[in-house]
Specification:
This protein has 358 residues and is of the alpha/beta class. It has 7 helices and 16 strands. It has 3 domains: 95 residues, Translation factors (Elongation Factor Tu (Ef-tu), domain 3); 135 residues, 3-Layer(aba) Sandwich (Rossmann fold), CATH 3.40.50.80; 95 residues, Ubiquitin-like (UB roll). A 6-stranded antiparallel beta sheet has the order 4-3-6-1-2-5, covered by helices on one side. A 5-stranded parallel beta sheet has the order 9-8-7-10-11, with helices on both faces. Strands 13-12-16-14-15 form a 5-stranded mixed beta sheet. Bound molecules: FE2/S2 (inorganic) cluster.
Length: 358
């Protein structure tokens, strides 16, 4: 076995058995799972905004998914999953997983929330849409507890009040004078223009003009689908600059409709898979390497297609690549050593690229 293959195996995510302590309905369309890692509990201590990777066995197939931790720091790990009726992981978590089940889980990962923020008091301006609340609910809880002088303002967009996740928890937390929760409802039930319908850059500017106090250093966090995170970012950049922000989108960038149909430059890609030489003469620089391999009919090792399982990891022999998205922090991983890439998360760049895979 070559040295590079050993390296690949060593960096695959290690899973630990966690028992489902409870599975409760959070909303009619989402479930809250509490996990007990047993003797491995210390491995599952997390910082705010981190996530867990699961390896689920769905109909005999391994399925890797990651979910944000929603528990307060120091308590048993919890995740909240919104139901999607597609036979995938979200449906499995909502309809199949029961108290007492044992799931395979990798320890927390992610650096959405920089620990340096705890050194001084801040005003946190949080923007969430739908299940995008999941990385932010742990930040709300942490920020209120970490420092008595922190202040938090949460702008939370949902299609209707029925969809609001963590409503009771937020109501309790909002008894603190240091937390303001501002609900925005797509169905217009609030009766006010600013808190009704879709959040757009202009509304973001108006909200920030109303809620920024400038008395403390400010930090914004944004989490939701790509359209939402783009709208909030644009609002901050156009209407409220300067304001530091970190953004997390749980969707892949909307490439199907835009980039896939845009004419692109191409790269000559040569890859060795398990010792067998293959090539993609014209790999589009708009597509990931995995997508180009699919189009070329090459059978490349892959599973999750979202930067989790590392099965598509490759060593760059020569040439360069660009990341699929610099916004989606969910696809970043510190486990990828220098000189390696995940083919599902990188696009080819330059005239020629040479890769080696297990
Ligand atoms: S990381 Fe799983 S397929 Fe790329």
């Amino acid at each position: 076995m070559s040295k590079s293959i050993n390296h690949l195996e060593q960096s695959a995510p290690k899973m630990w058995s966690c028992t489902v302590r409870s599975a409760e309905r959070l909303t009619p369309e989402s479930v809250l799972l509490t996990l007990d890692p047993g003797e491995h509990r210390e491995r599952f201590n997390a910082t705010p905004g981190q996530k867990l990777t699961f390896c689920l066995d769905i109909s005999g197939q391994s399925c890797y998914r990651n979910y944000n931790l929603v528990n307060p720091v120091g308590e048993l790990p919890q995740i909240a999953v919104k139901h999607v009726s597609d036979g995938g992981a979200a449906e499995y978590m909502n309809t199949t997983v029961r108290t007492g089940d044992v799931l395979q889980v990798a320890p927390p990962e992610g650096d959405f929330y920089p620990p340096a923020l705890d050194k001084t008091a801040h005003h946190f301006l949080l923007f969430a849409a739908g299940s995008g609340i999941t990385p932010l609910i742990s930040i709300v809880q942490h920020a209120l507890k970490a420092r008595p002088d922190n202040k938090v303002t949460l702008f939370y967009a949902n299609s209707s009040s029925r969809q609001i996740m963590f409503r009771e928890k937020l109501d309790v937390l909002a008894q603190s004078s240091r937390l303001d929760v501002y609900h925005i409802l797509g169905d217009g039930a609030t009766g006010e223009d600013l808190s009704s319908g879709r959040l757009n850059p202009s509304k973001v500017g108006r909200l920030l003009a109303q809620y920024r106090s400038h008395q403390l250093p400010e930090q914004a966090f944004i989490s939701g689908p790509t359209g939402f995170t783009n709208a909030v970012q644009n609002g901050i950049e156009v209407e409220a600059h300067p304001l530091d922000f970190a953004s997390y989108s749980f969707e892949r960038a909307n490439r199907d409709s835009e980039q896939l149909s845009t004419p692109s430059q191409s790269t000559e890609v040569h890859l060795t898979v398990g010792g067998v030489a293959r090539s993609i003469p014209k790999a589009s620089q708009n597509l990931t390497l995995l997508e180009s391999a699919d189009l070329a009919g090459l059978d490349m090792p892959a599973d999750c297609r979202s930067g989790i399982c590392h099965r598509c990891k490759a060593r760059i022999v020569s040439g360069r690549t660009t990341p699929l998205s610099t916004q989606n922090l969910g696809t970043q991983s510190k486990r990828i050593p220098p000189g390696y890439i995940l083919c599902c998360q990188q696009k080819p760049d330059g005239p020629k690229l040479e890769l080696e895979m297990d």
